[in-house]
Design brief:
Layout lengths: L1 H40 L4 H24 L9 H9 L6
Length: 93
Amino acid sequence: MNEKTNSNNKKREVILGTFLTIIGGILWGISGVCGQFLFQNKEVTASWLVPIRLVTAGVLLLCYYFIRIKGKTSISGEVRETGGILSFTGWRE
């Protein structure tokens, strides 16, 4: 019984991974089309668009994270991981 459950879980993971990969590709394509439209028709520069896209993605990921953890207070879960996380945020002196 346990092997059958593991096999079903593995199949679900593969199906979910495939689905998320396809959705990611579609959204990446849509993002490129929208960026091209803004560059050509709205005279937006890359130095404006890139930070806007990154901040928007960061806000969406934080919203997902806070919905997912349901009230936990620590982002990393462990204090020692916070330094590593902050090193990737782009903080400069």
